[in-house]
UniProtKB/TrEMBL annotation:
Keywords (A to Z) from UniProt: Cytoplasm, DNA-binding, Iron, Metal-binding, Repressor, Transcription, Transcription regulation, Zinc
A GO MF label: DNA-binding transcription factor activity
UniProt cofactor note: Binds 1 zinc ion per subunit.
The encoding gene: fur
Organism for this UniProt entry: Leeia aquatica
GO cellular component terms, A-Z: cytoplasm
The protein's name: Ferric uptake regulation protein
Necessary cofactors: Zn(2+)
Primary location: cytoplasm
Sequence positions that bind Zn(2+): C102, C105, C139, C142
């Protein structure tokens, strides 16, 4: 079953990368596939660990690919309370959603099923481009 998920994520990653019109590199494909297959947002360190079982990709390349994926709208960055950036594959179905960060294990989950209908009243001249909503508590694994 794990192998099927990995193959599906690889195919999805390749398809999404091709839509950008830019080069589909092995590093971009592998990193995006990992993000697509992961139920939680991943840090650069977690990605490096997950990538260790294949051809070597150095941490600078991982960083650059994550930034590129974010710029292209294929991934989004989530700032953790521990000041570590985590990345998740961007869902094009739902653009605004909340995140949940577990206070015990520090995992970050995208809560795409929670609708965010929040529009702050900003002073004249201000224009909102992005807002982060992070809920904090204990995840199901840590609550047991």
């Amino acid at each position: 079953m794990r192998r099927l998920i990995r193959v599906s994520a690889d195919l999805d990653a390749e398809s999404l990368l091709r839509r950008t019109g830019e080069r589909v590199t092995p590093a971009r494909r592998r990193i995006l596939a990992l993000l697509l297959a992961s139920p939680t947002a991943l840090s650069q360190q977690e990605l490096l660990h997950a990538l260790a079982d294949g051809p070597a990709i150095d941490r600078v390349t991982v960083y650059r690919v994550l930034e590129w994926l974010s710029e292209k709208g294929l991934a989004h960055k989530i700032a953790g309370e521990d000041r570590i950036w985590r990345f998740n594959a961007a869902s094009h179905r739902i653009h605004q959603h909340a995140h949940f960060q577990c206070q015990r294990c520090q995992r970050v989950y995208c809560l795409e099923h929670i609708q965010i209908d929040w529009q702050p009243q900003l002073p004249d001249g201000f224009r909102l481009h992005h807002a982060d909503i992070t809920l904090k508590g204990d995840c199901p694994s840590c609550s047991r």
